[in-house]
Amino acid sequence: MSETHATIPPGAPVFPPGRYGRRREPGRRRPALAALLVAAAVAALGLASYSLYDKYGDPAYGAQLVSYSDITDSQVVVDFRVTVPAGGSATCALRARSHDGAEVAREEVTVTARPGESHVTARHRLTTSARPFVGEVVRCRPAG
């Protein structure tokens, strides 16, 4: 049956008969397939993230700032606690910042735990180039 002006609604496009092939019905959506593909992608990314963190992340070395004190125009004393593997050592980056946020001192300090212990409490004096406002432990990593 060919389309005529009497069989098509107003505003619908008119196609010549046989020119564009058979008209298809709107396709059935497959939400289950899309959800399955998304779940597989999320699982693959999660597995990759976990394996990379396990390989390159180092949760055995953690630092915690205990306090900073003795602030003068040229120094700050930083007390910090480091978690290391039992009897291990870590190199920690310490810094001091001025009131406007500028870094006025940075040093790397190596701390070593006593045999059988996994926590080290340390104190270090940072010599600064201007009056510090705060002392910080930036990060700790394996020594060496």
Description:
InterPro entries: DUF4307. Residues 1-27 are annotated as: Disordered. Keywords: Membrane, Transmembrane, Transmembrane helix. The chain crosses the membrane at residues 32-53. This protein is of the alpha+beta class and 144 residues long. It has two domains: 30-58; 62-142, Immunoglobulin-like (Sandwich), CATH 2.60.40.3230. Helices cover 18% and strands 38% of the residues. The strands form two sheets. Strands 1-2-5 form a three-stranded antiparallel β-sheet, with no helix packed on it. Strands 4-3-6 form a three-stranded antiparallel β-sheet, with no helix packed on it. A hairpin with a 5-residue loop joins strand 1 and strand 2 (75-83). It is elongated, with a radius of gyration of 33 Å. The N and C termini lie far apart (84 Å). The mean pLDDT is 85.
Give me the side-by-side strand order of the main sheet: 1-2-5
| Cα Rg | 33 Å
Question: Which H/E pattern describes the elements?
Answer: HEEEEEE
Overall geometry: elongated
Number of continuous helical runs: 1
Please, what is the oligomeric state? single chain
Proportion of helical residues: 10-25%
Query: What is the domain total for the residues?
Result: 2
Helix/strand class:
alpha+beta
Enumerate the spans where pLDDT stays under 50 for 5 or more consecutive residues.
none
User: How does CATH name the architecture of the largest domain?
Assistant: Sandwich
Provide the residue-averaged pLDDT: 85
- Compute the separation of the termini in Å: 84 Å
- Tell how many strands the DSSP assignment holds: 6
Keywords: Membrane, Transmembrane, Transmembrane helix
Pfam family, one: DUF4307
InterPro entries: DUF4307
